[in-house]
Specification:
0% strand; mainly alpha; single chain
């Protein structure tokens, strides 16, 4: 179960300062984050460790995702927007 503190931490780290990324990540946080399993939340935390430009390129499919463990969560984020 997602605690309020963990939700707030992940929501805060999802605010990237790059408007385009915020438009992709914040709707995902609001709509989907509370329903994610612990494994999916771990994938999302891992995703947030990546550089902004890489995240953006993967989310808009400009570049293939080089990390197979992130493909599923990236697809979830794309679907939330």
């Amino acid at each position: 179960m997602l605690s309020d503190i963990e939700y707030k931490k992940l929501a805060w780290h999802s605010r990237r300062g790059m408007r385009e990324l915020d438009l992709l990540l914040l709707p995902f946080v609001e709509k989907c984050l509370p329903q994610l399993s612990e494994d999916e939340r771990a994938q999302y935390r891992r995703l947030l460790m990546e550089e902004d430009q890489d995240l953006y390129n993967w989310l808009v499919m400009r570049e293939p995702v080089p990390h197979p463990e992130l493909v599923a969560i990236i697809e979830r984020v794309r679907g939330a927007g």
